[in-house]
Write a structure and sequence with these properties.
By secondary structure, this protein is of the alpha+beta class. It has one domain: NADH Oxidase. Helix content is 38%, strand content 14%. A four-stranded antiparallel β-sheet has the order 1-2-4-3. Helix 2 packs across helix 5. The longest helix has 21 residues. The chain is globular.
Amino acid sequence: MPFHDLLKNRRSIRDFQQKDVPLGIIKEIIKDSCLAPSASNGQPCNFIVIQNREMMKRISDECKKNLLDDFKKSPGAFSERYETILKDETFNIFYNAPSVIYVVGSSDINSIDVDCALAVSYLMFSAANRGLGACWIGFGGNIRDSKIREEIGLPDNYSIITPLIIGYPQSIPAPLERKEPQILKIIS
């Protein structure tokens, strides 16, 4: 797909076909994401791939529990619509996607958030180029249970930067209207 079309056609997908994504394709997409720039070419991003639906359900339940605890501690800090959906026992924060890719990195690296965000952008474009859909799921980063963190291979000194769901989309939604860029100033 021409690059400009790829930019215009990439969408956040939350409705997937019940079709597994071959691990080989996931690995290719991850490899493409490693072409992203990083501070001092440190390439600090690491990846955890989960394609086990039982584990994904456990992680979803863990994250929902932790987020609801956060709501109790700071009731006004979050939108009430999130609280309602998180209380729904049937709601899966991963939208029943066949795969989750966690992009993680050492908490000791100052640029880890930016470096991984750049890699995730490449990852999403690589997925879209292969006819796959993806969506950054911020809720999925709320894993506090040390047993689950150990089971998924997340080192103690690592942070979850991005949980990204990926799969074959049921459909591609129409693009949302975009605002014109707000250039604050041009100095020539």
